[in-house]
Aminotransferase
Amino acid sequence: MTKSRISPMAASYPASDIRKMFNLALDFPDAVKLTVGEPDFTTPEHIKAAGIRAIENDNTRYVANAGIPELRSAIAGKYSARWNRSITPENVMVSFGAMEALTFALDVTVAPGDEVIIPDPSFPNYMGQVHRLGGVAVSVRVTENNDLKLRAEDVRAAITDKTAAVIINSPSNPLGSVMDRADLEQIAALADEHGFTVISDEVYDEMVFDVEYTSIAEVKPSTAEVGAEFDRFLAIGSFSKTYAMTGWRCGFVIGSQDFIAPMALLQEGLTSSLPGFVQEAAVAAIEGPQTAVEEMVASYARRRELMVERINAIEGLSLLRPAATFYAWVNVSEWGLSSWELATRLLEDHNLATIPGSAFGPAGEGYLRLTFAVSDETINTACDRLEAFAAGR
Ligand SMILES: Cc1ncc(COP(=O)(O)O)c(C=O)c1O
C-alpha cells in the first residue's frame, strides 16, 4: 500500500467557514464589515513604547521557553488578585496567543481517541485543535432556551469514560453570554468526580458589561472538602482583546504545576519562545495604567446598546442583549434562509459582510454573528442594509 503524500489529519482538517466568508468578502473591498473578531482600537501608546524600547535595548535573542520571568510573574500577580488565590510564576505558561495556549492545554490532557466536550456553537478552532490531536470532539448544544449559556446538566449528559477534557468559553465567542457560577461549580465537581480537565478559554474576561463574571479558577466544586481548592483546570488568557494586541500574539495558560511544566518542553520543539520584546510590551500592559482598557470596554458597552436597539427594530430579527464581548448573536431564523445563504446574499446584494452562525457549529444555524467593535456609523449603515434586505423580502 502506498502512503498518501498528505497525512490523513492534515487532509481532513476542518475548514473554517469564518475564513471562507473572509475570502468571499475580499471580492467586495468596500463592503461594510461586521466580521472581524478584534478591537478596532490601536495598541495603547505606553505598550507600544515598551516594545520599541525592548528592541532598542537588544531584547532580540531567544528567551526562556515558558516566558520571561517578569511576564510570568506579572500574570501571576494579576490573577492572584483577580481570583483571590495564590498563583505563582510556575503556574503560568506564556504562549503565542490564546491559540497556542489551547494547543498546550489540549496537548497535556488529550491522547488519541480521547473525547473532548465542546459547546456548540463555539470558536471553530476548538474543533480543529481536537482533530489535530486525534481526539474526538463531542458537542453540547447551547440554545436561547438556556439564555445562550452552557449548562452543567448538558455537560453531565455528554460525559463518558473517555472524556479527557471539557472546553468552556465564558464570556463566549460567538454568543456574548457569561456562564453562571452554579454551572461552573457543578462542572468543577464533575471534573473531580470523573477525572477530566476543564479547559477554560477566558480571553474576553475583561470585556464584561453589567453582570457578575466568575472564572473557573474562582469556584469551589460543590462536592469539595472544606478548604480544598479546585485544580483540575487550565485557564486560557490573552493580551489580544483586552489590550488591543491581536497582532502581537501573546497569550498564556494558568494551571497547576504538573500541567504547566511539560508545556515548556513542548514549546522548545514548537517555537522555542515568544519574542522577548513582545513579552516586555505585555509586562507594560499589565503593570501600566488600565485607563485604555476601561475606555475600550465602555465603548463596546455603548455600541452594544446601539446594536441591540437597531437589530430588534428590524422585522424578523431578534437579539438577546450580550452581557460581554463585542459580538451580537442575531436570531435570523424567521427570515427562513440558511445562515450561509443569508450571509452570502447580504454580501452580494447589500455589500454587507457578516459571519453565518453555522460557522460556529450546527447549533449556530439560524443566526448571524455581527461584531460591534466598529464605529457607530458602521453599525448604523450595516443595520440600514439589514433593513433594506428585510424590506425587499
Ligand atoms: C474564544 C476565543 N479564543 C481564543 C481566541 C484567540 O485569541 P489569540 O489572539 O490570543 O490567539 C479568540 C480570537 O478570536 C477567541 O475568540
Observations:
- The longest strand covers residues 115-120.
- The chain has two domains: 8-43+291-392, 45-287.
- The pocket of pyridoxal-5'-phosphate is lined by residues 37, 97-99, 123, 169, 173, 201, 203, 238, 240, 246, 251 (CB under 6 Å).
